[in-house]
Amino acid sequence: MKKLSAFIALAMVFSLLLCSMASADVITALAIEVNTDHLEKTASYARILKYNQDSNTLTVELIAPEKFSAEDMAALRMGDSIYTGGQEIRIESISYDDAWCSTVFINGDDLFFFQNKDGDYTRMVTEDDCLWNAFAVIECPIVPSLLFLDGIDAETGNELELPAVHSAEELVNELRSSGAEEAFTVGLCANNVYVVFDGEGNLATIRRFYVPWQ
Fold first, then answer.
1. Which of 9, 118, 172, 197 has its CA 20 to 30 A from that of 47?
2. Could you count the other beta carbons within 10 Å of the beta carbon of residue 203?
3. Average pLDDT of the chain?
4. Looking at the predicted structure, is the pLDDT value of residue 66 above 90?
C-alpha cells in the first residue's frame, strides 16, 4: 500500500509538472508598423549603408527597436519564454525597478527592458541604446530634391539646436569620399538616422540625430 501511495504521489507531481510546462507561454515582439510595399508618406529609423555610383542610389536598411507590449510583459512568469534577438530564452527570474526607467530585468541583468512613454517595453543592449531589428534593405534613387538634415555638429560631435541642411549633391560627395560609416565624422549607420518618404514613395529626407554612443 505504501508503494502504491508513493507511486500515486509521484504520478501527481509529474502530472503537475507536465501541466506547468504545457501552460508556459512564449511572448514575441510587437509587429513593425512600416509596410515596405507602401512607403508613401511614411518615416522609419534607418541605416544608410552605402552610395551606389552606377545606379545613383542609396542602399538603405530600415530598422525598428524591438518592443514588447506592457500586457505581455506584465503577464510573464518564471518558466515562460521570451523570443528576442533571434532566440527563445527561458525565464528563470524576473525583477522590476520602477525607480530606474520602469525597468524589467530577466535572468538577472542578462536582459533588461525600459518602459516607453506609450507603456510598451523596449529591449535594451546598453543603458543608452536598444536592440534594433532590420526588416528591409532597399535601394533608393537619389532625387534632386533629397535633403540631408544633420542634427550633429560635424566638427565637435555635439547636438545642434537646429539641423544643418545639406543638398543631395553634398550628401553624395561626402559618401563618395568618406563612406557611410565615417560620413560627416560619425557616419550614417550607427542607429542615428531616420528617413522620410514622400507621397510617391521616394526617399525625400534623411535626418541624423545625436546619440550618446557616437
1. 118
2. 23
3. 89
4. yes
